[in-house]
Amino acid sequence: MRDIIIVGNWKMNKNNAETKAFFEAVDPVAKTNKGLYGVGVPFTDLKTALDEAKNLIVAAENVHFEDSGAFTGEVSVPMLEELGVKYCIVGHSERRQMFGDTDETVNKKAKKLLAAGITPILCIGETEAEYDAGKTKDVITSQLNGSLKDIPAEEYKNIVIAYEPIWAIGTGKSASVEIAENCCKLVRDVVKDMVGEAAADAVRIQYGGSVKPGNIVEYMAQEDIDGALIGGASLKPDSFIEIIEKTK
């Protein structure tokens, strides 16, 4: 039985005062032994979030794969380690589309995080054009093979894979429960082909894409959906609290 993991992705939102207020409202509600709830926050909010977190987990939204060097504006795994970060989002579609992340760089980041004992929340997903062209399976298979290349089977219990169809992120269009479950099952099947059944059973798979209080319960009822990566609905304490309460 895999524990659920529901994580908000704040993207480029909230300053430190807003972060503190959010945690004061939401953190007490997140106390549970049934799974994990948390948020991915901008680098500038990490320390505040970690200081305030008693029950919520805190994730960075990105990381570089080198320890140090001439990489202006980047943040390294040792920097996250020093703060006590234990989760990190990598390969989000916005990073891939706007900032040049590739399967190869996502793979390097995931390996670096795992070596430091930090759980990567590794994002994959197809565009609307790819979905309409019937290429979902090809895209998912290719992204997983590239992004998880040479990661040993025993590490998959320490990995979270977030399937996010790009056409459903921030658009208000969420994938139907059937599409979401079929694609998350496909992710598990690809992992099984790559590294075996035990790893496929252990890896936690999230669905992401316009997830909100009104649809979270039906997504979480699916066999291969172990959690959610949530954008807009994670920014408002009331809506995130409602999501927590409905899935505890």
Number of strands: 8
What characterizes the major β-sheet? 8 strands, parallel, barrel
Strand residue percentage: 15-25%
As laid out across the biggest beta sheet, the strand order is 1-2-3-4-5-6-7-8
Number of helices: 11
**What is the rounded distance between the termini?**
15 Å
Structural class comes to: alpha/beta
- In quaternary terms, these chains amount to single chain
The averaged pLDDT comes out at: 96
What are the secondary-structure elements, in order, as H or E? EHEHEHEHHEHHEHHEHEH
Radius of gyration, CA atoms, in whole angstroms: 17 Å
- State the helicity in percent bands: 40-55%
Shape: globular
Give unreliable regions as ranges: none
Q: What descriptors fit this protein?
A:
single chain; 248 residues; alpha/beta; 8-stranded parallel barrel
